[in-house]
Design a protein that fits this description.
single chain; mainly alpha; 8 helices
Length: about 150
């Protein structure tokens, strides 16, 4: 069982048929959903997600674009975000889930506008990822500080 999780986390075994969603794709889909929460998916938000993917998962630009494309399709066809939060919570350790919440804030703030819809989405998703209100607020502060330095 642990070998299967290790393979999934390292990206190995992708050729194997598996019904479980890759946790990095699930996390990326949540990033896309954060960008879509206000009804506008701006190019700057997609670019922010690509940068996050390259930095967080050490992906080259082509692989980041591919993962983003898969996530956009999943987000477009998803009935809700629970299928994604469930995978992320089960597969990623606490510090990575907290980092994901910070990335959600970075995406939400990428267009320079604060949207109550994006804020609401992140407030709903964070507890599903087992991220406390305190950690969510701290993650937002870090994301806002990073946005100011750009």
């Amino acid at each position: 069982m642990f070998d299967a999780i290790r393979k999934m986390m390292s990206g190995g075994g992708e050729a194997e048929a598996r019904s479980e969603l890759d946790p990095h794709v699930a996390a990326t889909t949540l990033l896309v959903e954060a960008a879509l929460a206000d009804g506008i998916y701006a190019d700057i938000e997609a670019e922010q997600i690509r940068h996050i993917l390259m930095a967080a998962f050490q992906l080259d630009p082509e692989k980041a674009a591919d993962m983003l494309s898969r996530a956009e399709t999943l987000a477009e066809n998803a009935a809700d975000h629970h299928q994604f939060t469930k995978v992320v919570k089960a597969c990623l350790p606490g510090p990575e889930r907290i980092a994901l919440v910070e990335h959600l804030w970075r995406v939400a703030l990428a267009d320079g506008e604060k949207s109550h819809l994006e804020d609401s989405f992140i407030r709903r998703v964070a507890p599903l990822l087992a991220v406390s209100d305190r950690e969510r607020v701290l993650a937002r502060s870090r994301a806002e500080a990073a946005a100011r330095t750009r």
